[in-house]
Description:
Four Helix Bundle (Hemerythrin (Met), subunit A)
Amino acid sequence: MQIPESLIQECRSKLLTQKVDILNRVQDSRKNFVSSEEKRGGDEADQTMAILQEKEALTLHERLRSQLVEIESALARIESGTYGTCEETEETIESERLRAIPWTRLSIEGAEIREAMSKRYAR
């Protein structure tokens, strides 16, 4: 089953909007990180709080970077014509799933298969 062009365009639009949002969030977090770097000093409690804030900022930055990679990958799949095909089952991903998670690589069935495999090999 082929994905309708209207759905692909809807998902592309969502992906581009989310990409801009993430890039803005990264820029804001960098500004906050730089301003907190300039405020270094103080007693041990202040330094501990600054280190915790730095760790939190880095964790957020990594999460945003991962999501940006997924969005870029989905946009590349749209360009290559493979968007909406499950990497696990090679079947068409459900329209509702693409609307909810436009960067998804897996259908619901494919996600269940991957989860079962990861549980099996995690032991």
